[in-house]
Amino acid sequence: MTTTVLFDLDNTLANRRHAFDSFTRQFIEDFLATSDIGTSSMDNEAALMETIRIADRNGYRSKRELFQELLCTLPFKDERVTVRHLLEYWYSEFAGHTTMMQGAEELLHDLRAQGFRLGLITNGSVAVQNRKLDQLQLRAYFETVIVSQAVRLDKPDRRIFELALQRMKVSPQETWYVGDHPVNDVQGASRAGLRTVWLEGFEEWPDEVIECPQHTIRQLSELHAWNQW
Fold first, then answer.
1. Cis peptide before 172 (omega within 30 of 0)
2. Among residues 194, 198, 175, which one has the least CA distance to residue 117?
3. Residue 226 pLDDT level (bands cut at 50, 70, 90)
4. Are 63 and 71 in contact (CB under 8 A)?
5. Which pLDDT value is given to residue 228?
6. Chain centroid to CA 144
7. Of 204, 206, 212, 184, which Cα lies nearest the Cα of 6?
8. b/e code 28-55 from CB counts within 10 Å (16+ = b)
């Protein structure tokens, strides 16, 4: 019987896609010389946002690499801006753009009311991921929160999932993991023996991933019927 549900954070409970779009608009306004591009201001912003979105690789790229590329390819207002300036800007500003995935808090509240124990495993920096959780005010729902930087393990390494199981003193057979990434979430949790739910719509499923999720959902509200599975 399922007693424990572990969640991913970005693009699972927090809508990272919306947050990055919001951050990017602010970044463009604060740093980029959009008048140097010979199209309308609306077209400028749309083109710049798409360029930055592609360069970011949906968050699966180091921010140092991202900003090094942007400094080389985009028109900045101030040529004295450095990668260090942009990294400081990222760490101070991005988490403040965090928004809840639709239905996330209602789901966590309902699962707790049904008697499920909840935890969270997320890749990323301690400072940014903790600020996101505080922004969303979700921390109280979880018995354990594991941020990859803090434990020096990154999903899909099975050991980060095993660490969560150890902390909560539960077996993989009675635990589900919910996430959006086929490799980091579904493959990683499956190899640690957990049952998995894939939240599709953010990442394409790669052909080389042979571990299939037990359930695939399009929105979190589908998990309210968990006890019927």
1. no
2. 175
3. confident
4. no
5. 67
6. 17
7. 184
8. beebbebeebeeeeeebbeebbeebeee
pLDDT, tens digit, for every residue of 129-153?
999 999 999 999 999 999 999 999 9
E-only strand ranges, the chain: 4-7, 117-122, 144-147, 175-179, 195-199, 215-217
Sign of CA dihedral 123, 136, 109, 220: negative
Q: How does residue 45 score in pLDDT terms, banded at 50, 70 and 90?
A: confident
Averaged pLDDT of the chain: 93
Please give the backbone phi and psi of residue 217, each rounded to the nearest 5 degrees, phi first.
Answer: -125, 160
Q: Which residue has the tokens 């594991």?
A: 146
Strand ranges inside 54-199, DSSP E: 117-122, 144-147, 175-179, 195-199
pTM, whole model, 2 decimals? Answer: 0.90
Residue for token digits 């990294």? Answer: 87
Question: What CA–CA distance (Å, rounded) separates 141 from 133?
Answer: 11
Cα distances (Å, whole numbers) of residue 94 to 89, 98, 112, 132, 213: 8, 7, 29, 9, 31
Q: What's the mean pLDDT in 22-26?
A: 97
Identity of residue 150: A
Which amino acid belongs to residue 229?
Answer: W
